Amino acid sequence: MKSLLLLFCVGLGFHPVSSQIIYKSTSAHIVATGVRNSERVFVESHQSLVMFNYQAMNVVVQADLRFLETGIDSLNKALQSGASKPVFFEGKMEMSTLNLQGHPQQPFDLGGNLTLNSMTKPVRFKGTLTHLSSSDNNACLFSASATIRLSDFNLQKQFAEYSDGVSIEIVQVVLRKQSR
Question: Which residue of 9, 41, 86, 122 lies most exposed, with the fewest beta carbons within 10 A?
Answer without folding.
Answer: 122
